[in-house]
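Open question from group meeting: does this chain pack into something compact, or does most of it stay loose? Before anyone orders reagents, we agreed to write out a predicted structure and look at it together. Recording both the input and the output here so the notebook holds the full record.
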Amino acid sequence: MKKVIFTVMAAALTAASSMAAEKVVLLKFGDFDQWVTRHIKESSVIGGNTKTLYEIGPTKTLDGATAYVPQGGSPWATSNVYAKVMGVVKTSNAVFPDTHGSGKCVKLTTMLEHVKAVGVINMDVLVNGSIFLGRMFEPVSSTKNPYSKMEMGVPFTQRPKYLQFDYKLTAPTGDRTYSSGFGSQKTIRGRDYSEVFILLQRRWEDEKGNIHAARVGTGRQRFGATTANWVNKHRIEVKYGDITKTPGYQSYMGLISTKDRAYYARNSKGKMVPVIEEQWDDANATPTHMLVMASSGCGTAYVGTIGMTFWIDNMALVY
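Structure tokens returned:
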């Protein structure tokens, strides 16, 4: 009996010591308590209404149809955009502040943006609410290749163990919808999933300005079940090196190795170029960049389940 008690106490002390040694570092503005509110008047040809867009950053209000520049050193961008297509000013907002406990959180939604102007525009565009580390370049002038308007990732040289956050999900069971604004709207069999990922890359640039990358660390999870309440301090483990043979590996966790799927970044000349992941890096490698994204959808652009709603709060790294 004494031996059993000693073993239990030793295990408890070891666990307590391990927890005490952990360091949880909130990403800047990762408590989502502060928001920038933008008021933009759309073109009169589509109604001339003043719409509200939200960005993650120090509390302030911005008025006017001007390109958004991240405020207060915020590393976050959203899928909320000011667009100017064929001279028509239009906005899209699928990321909102919401309440969580005594503070705020971020609410990501999948929805249809409808644009109609007699004789000029008549289209529906499906939008997944997304937040990511990086920057969105405005005004957006077309729906073609949306990733080319997003600079994904920030400089980063550390090696965290986990990405930690609180979440809540409302997941409709209906099929997916495809609607890019051009051609007819389509129904795609099967449901969508919300997603969160952290990717660590070691990037380098060649003499032609192309950006290459090796994958250093991977943490990626999809969420499809409605939760009754908030799930707090959920963790996604960051696994290092080639993870293709590790337990739990899924194909969507693999390298982003083709141009049509690649995320973009600015090269040394200031040009946006695709970042092609060419290889798995050594498990002990040091990254140069970190990508973090949370989204109400996980498919290709303009595809999702309308009504999918994903709440996120307290995004942090655990060391």
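Observations to bring back to the group:
The chain has a mean pLDDT of 91.
The CA atoms of residues 6 and 12 lie 10 Å apart.
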